[in-house]
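Notes from the 1:1 (GR / supervisor)

We went over the backlog. Supervisor wanted to see one worked example end to end before approving the batch request, so GR pasted a single chain during the call. The sequence is below; no edits were made to it. Supervisor asked that the structure be written out right there so they could see what the output format looks like.
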Amino acid sequence: MKNDPSGCVSNQTISKPNATAHTGLRWPPLIPGILIRRYKRFLADVRLENGETVIAHCPNSGSMATCATPGRPVYLSISDNPRRKLRYTWEMIQMPTSLVGVNTQVPNRLVAQAVAQGLVPELSGYTDVRREIRVGEHSRIDIGLAAPDRRPCYVEVKNCTWVENGLATFPDAVTLRGQKHLMELQALVKSGCRCVMFFLIQRMDADRFAPADNMDPEYGRKLREALHHHVEILVYDVHMDLYGICLNRKIALDKALIPDKTITRA
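Structure output shown during the call:
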């Protein structure tokens, strides 16, 4: 199996595992192609190696500002479910400095698995790890953690793909839902719970993180307010290749955008 200079793999379907065992999630067999365009948020035209152009589902509602460049190699999973309108799902894109995972369903699964396996030191020691925890009448938190000798812990997971010059930022579009989650976490902290905002950077070229004040200044304001009221922030990136994705390392908060005095424990 040989890679060409663009990062595209010569085989049409990639399924054989590499020598490095992943402790995270394995991709289904992937099909390489070239991105023609992304449109209507959830659709992408992709040219496969055989010259066929297919429409793939894009499982990402953000702007994907730094990870949707036409002409770049992309990788699609394929479904045999006859009920699906679109057979292909866009999973990754090869950008000049990193593979980037675009599927926003991956972070919740990956973080929950990593926590359950004890791979996140800041969230270790909990005996019960659950996903999609109902909070109040109309909201859910991504992960709930419990242990007999600890207060309940709620973890909200956000997918981050916007990276420029090593700086990862979130969000890449105005997110009223994200602002709401920050307020809900603050309320849970006031009720005696521990709360964590977990940003997962689905790429490998970031060395620091900050809120995207230029994109959604209100989210940045609410994030700083949440920090001040003891909502914790964790930021991790991933290791990913054509076979799987796993949690990699903790990423620092950018002090130029989040002053020291507003940073709580993380």
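Supervisor's comment: Residues 106-262 form a domain with the Trna Endonuclease; Chain: A, domain 1 fold (CATH 3.40.1350.60).
Batch request approved.
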